[in-house]
Amino acid sequence: MALKIRLARHGAKKRPYYRVVVADSRAPRDGRFIEIVGKYNPMLPKSSEDRVVLDIEKCKEWLNKGARPTERVARFLGAAGVWEWKAGHNPVKGKPGAKAEQLIKDKAEKEEARKQAEEEAKEAAKEAAKAAEEAAKAAEEEAKAAAAAEKEAPAEEAPAEEAPAEEAPAEEAPAEEEPKP
Questions:
Q1: Which residues span the domain enclosing 130?
Q2: Looking at the structure, do residues 52 and 119 belong to the same domain, yes or no?
Q3: What are phi and psi of 162, to 5 degrees?
Q4: Rg (CA), the chain
Q5: Which of 43, 91, 121, 162 is 20–30 Å from 20 (CA)?
Q6: Angle CA(175)–CA(179)–CA(180) in degrees, nearest 5?
Q7: Are 32 and 23 contacting, i.e. CB atoms less than 8 angstroms apart?
Q8: Are residues 20 and 73 in the same domain?
Q9: What is the pTM of this model?
Q10: Tally of domains in the chain
């Protein structure tokens, strides 16, 4: 049986109050316990003496019997000088899981593809602008060449207006046919 010195929550909703208890590690958090060895009221200011109250003698006795404190209770016992508490160092704790890493990777790939597509679109727009500019220059040069060719070529006589052809007399429209009996 593994013994733990841990907190058991009591109090009302949004008004927590904890008991420091010695319990079997398999028992529910607020369930069966062996003995109450202190109390913790997080609603009191940190400077208050009644915020954490521990029975040091009982805690020492249970520690000698093999009970191990949880992280929070170890802090309290460290402040009381009963237990040597070291700040926990778990570098893996804040690391995202496999699914989150995959989502981050996918998001980065999509972002890279989007940036690449934007760059390609900008390049295509630049090339289209260059092509349009070159076409405009070529058209301008053609217009200049055509204007120069008109000035150099002798003026040709304008063709005379053709006389309107004589109109043929309109044939009389045939009379309406009479209905057959």
A1: 115-149
A2: no
A3: -75, 140
A4: 49
A5: 91
A6: 125
A7: yes
A8: yes
A9: 0.48
A10: 2
Burial 76-103 (b: 16+ CB within 10 A, else e): bbeeeebbebeeeeeeeeeeeeeeeeee
Q: Are residues 22 and 65 in the same domain?
A: yes
- Report how far residue 8's alpha carbon sits from residue 24's, in angstroms, rounded to the nearest whole number: 12
Written as tens digits, the pLDDT of the chain (181 aa) is: 788 899 999 989 999 999 999 998 888 888 888 999 999 999 999 898 889 999 989 999 999 998 899 888 988 998 888 888 777 677 777 788 889 999 999 999 999 999 999 999 999 999 998 888 888 888 888 888 888 777 776 555 555 556 555 555 555 555 566 666 6
Q: Hey, how many other C-beta atoms are within 10 angstroms of the C-beta on 50?
A: 10
CA dihedral 131, 132, 136, 137 (to 10 degrees): -30
Identify whether residues 124 and 69 lie together within a single domain: no
On whether both 12 and 62 belong to a single domain, the answer is yes
56-64 and 71-80 helices cross at what angle (nearest 10)? Answer: 120
